Amino acid sequence: MRRAVIIGAGMAGLLAARAAAASGAVDEVVIIEPDDLADDTPARTGLPQARHTHILMAGGAEAADELLPGIIRRWLDAGAHRQELTSHMVALSPEGWYRRWKPTGHYLITASRPLLDRVVREQVLTDSRIRLLTGRKVTALLGSSHHVTGVVHSAARARGDEPHHLHAALVVDASGRASRATTWLADLGVTGIAQRQLDTGLTYASRTFRAPAGARHVPVFNVMADPLAGNGRSAVVTPIENGQWIASLCGIKGSEPTRDPADFVPFALGLRHPLIGQLLQDLEPLSDVTVSRNTGNRRRYFEKVSNWPERFVALGDAIATFTPVYGQGLSVAALGALALHRELHRHGSTAAGVARRVQRAAAVSVDAAWILATAQDIHYTAAHGQKPTRQERLQSAFTSRLSRVATGSAFMADALTDVTSMRRPATRLLSPAVLYAAAAGPLLKPLQGPQLTPAERRLLGPRNAATPAASS
Ligand SMILES: Cc1cc2nc3c(=O)[nH]c(=O)nc-3n(C[C@H](O)[C@H](O)[C@H](O)COP(=O)(O)OP(=O)(O)OC[C@H]3O[C@@H](n4cnc5c(N)ncnc54)[C@H](O)[C@@H]3O)c2cc1C
């Protein structure tokens, strides 16, 4: 029996399970997960971020749909929203307000994180080859520095439990931000894994609200920070299922939002533009304020390890975590699982070098996300003593230029969305047409305020009466 063991039942783990089973390279897949997933509350211990805004980019949604055909339709049927880009997004970037250009086929999906995971989990577990073992956590890998041959797992919460060994032809670490892969590998003799960390000390504070009557499906509203001006505060509001909106406030170290409900709307009103505070000020909150602080960028360069062991792969946040405000982690997880499927389908689970191939293929979307996530963060992290590399500084200046041009060029907005939605590789931005447009600059003057429809303007509280706005 060729078995794959997947560590963790988050998005990367669920999609990796499907990828392994559907590739035909294994006969059985066992997912090991500490949490009891029958209990579908947003508060599950292993997924503290589930109470915060989760935007799924088109590239990630389509990778998931390739692995689980029809999953996008199922998300939407369960209450998720499809938001056309850039027409259904109102965003103030550091370079100014983005225009709402005509739809070009780009989109993103908004829903609560528990909904996104539940729909995928239900679908993945219809496959009789995939088994979910809950209440257990992986504590070590079995094997040697050449081959991983299984995992050691024990009770997640109970003490005094005898550890069990589970042998496997393939082990996938999808245990997220808390992944102990580098320690587990070091125990087998695989050391020297390079790592880069850029942490701005960003704090997230999120809360759900009842959507106003007739406003269940609104655009994504986003007021971003402006690192060069020293403003590290931002916020986003998105519609989710069940007639609710979720709002997340973010602030770097020294500018953090608090968990005090009385601070929530005032924080949003005090951003670079009061739009989000104005949207929220008269709404009925449906939850407490949840705060998370573990949000830094952290990249492990597994694909560069010269003696990478056979039959072991890491995916999703286990490879890299990104500042969440750019909404890329889920898509990187899905694209990584798709890379796993392609390599297993082509080479099988036991061919020499296949684990390394997967790691290299998964690194492509990780790199793209890293460039975008760190482009702004380097300005803060420099202030916090972490020196940006020369390459990071160049990438940051280039992305900032493209973003400025995108405020006044439909072509550039589309090219940038190709990459930020993770549908096209970052090299798309190096095409001659993009470089020419970047040199030419924006074709239209900057907007002086958000482009809002009359219906959207009515959602703002009375304090917005004087807000300048361009027509949409
Ligand atoms: C505040 C915040 C907001 C975010 N917003 C967005 C967003 O808008 N869009 C987006 O794309 N991404 C967002 N992200 C990132 C996103 O949450 C992650 O990228 C995504 O969850 C990664 O999926 P994963 O499966 O790799 O890890 P996770 O989803 O974290 O899943 C890991 C799983 O592994 C389990 N596990 C842990 N340890 C063990 C063990 N020893 N043995 C077995 N199982 C284990 C956990 O219980 C969990 O179920 C956000 C992150 C944060 C922190």
Task: Tell me about this structure.
This protein has 13 helices and 21 strands. It is globular and about 65 Å long. Helices cover 33% and strands 22% of the residues. By secondary structure, it is an alpha+beta fold. The strands form five sheets. Strands 6-5-15-16-17-14-18 form a seven-stranded mixed sheet. It has a five-stranded parallel sheet with strand order 8-2-1-12-20. The chain has helices spanning 11-23, 58-67, 71-77, 113-124, 181-188, 261-269, 275-280, 329-347, 354-383, 390-406, 410-420, 432-440, 454-457, and strands at 3-7, 28-33, 54-57, 81-85, 89-93, 96-97, 106-111, 130-134, 136-143, 148-155, 164-167, 170-173, 195-198, 203-210, 220-223, 233-240, 244-251, 290-292, 297-300, 312-314, 320-321. The model is unreliable at 463-472 (pLDDT under 50). The protein starts with a strand and ends in a 15-residue tail after the last helix. The structure holds flavin-adenine dinucleotide.
SSE inventory with pairings:
Blueprint (H helix, E strand, L loop, with lengths): L2 E5 L3 H13 L4 E6 L20 E4 H10 L3 H7 L3 E5 L3 E5 L2 E2 L8 E6 L1 H12 L5 E5 L1 E8 L4 E8 L8 E4 L2 E4 L7 H8 L6 E4 L4 E8 L9 E4 L9 E8 L3 E8 L9 H9 L5 H6 L9 E3 L4 E4 L11 E3 L5 E2 L7 H19 L6 H30 L6 H17 L3 H11 L11 H9 L13 H4 L15
Parallel strand pairs: 1-2, 1-12, 2-8, 5-15, 12-20
Antiparallel strand pairs: 3-7, 4-7, 5-6, 9-10, 10-11, 13-19, 14-17, 14-18, 15-16, 16-17, 19-21
Helix pairs in contact: 1-4, 1-8, 2-8, 8-9, 9-10, 10-11
This protein binds flavin-adenine dinucleotide (FAD).
